[in-house]
Design brief:
Organism: Chryseobacterium ureilyticum
Strand order of the largest sheet: 2-1-10-9-5
Protein name: F-type H+-transporting ATPase subunit epsilon
Shape: globular
Function: Produces ATP from ADP in the presence of a proton gradient across the membrane.
CATH class: Mainly Beta
Structural class: mainly beta
Radius of gyration: 12 Å
CATH architecture: Sandwich
GO molecular function: proton-transporting ATP synthase activity, rotational mechanism
Low-confidence stretches: none
Keywords: ATP synthesis, CF(1), Ion transport, Membrane, Transport
Helix content: under 10%
CATH topology: ATP Synthase, domain 1
Mean pLDDT: 95
Largest sheet: 5 strands, mixed
Strand content: over 45%
Distance between the termini: 23 Å
């Protein structure tokens, strides 16, 4: 599935991921391939991307969570996510 993370200043990440973990108002939630369409607000926390690789252009924006798994994170203050038809856009600050 394709995920794009945007801030008002730049594109943080765009690429294929197997899933994404997001900080929602009522707790973290996981979006995986073929997830039902969703629009949700996000609170401060970490957006975690589960992916095999990250393009070098975006690697500088992300933190690798550990060496064993391919999990990358990006800290946000707030935002909104829209996901439909295996494409997601995360607008955040």
């Amino acid at each position: 599935m394709n995920i794009k993370i945007l801030t008002p200043e730049y594109v943080v990440f765009e690429g294929e991921v197997s899933s994404v973990l997001l900080p929602g108002k009522n707790g973290e939630f996981h979006i995986m391939k073929n997830h039902a369409g969703i629009v949700s607000s996000l609170i401060g926390g970490k957006v975690k991307l589960f992916t095999n690789s990250v393009d070098e252009a975006y690697a500088k924006n992300l933190t690798k969570e550990n060496d064993k798994d391919s999990v990358f994170s990006y800290s946000i203050k707030s935002g909104v996510v829209e996901f439909n038809h295996n494409k997601g856009i995360i607008l955040c600050e």
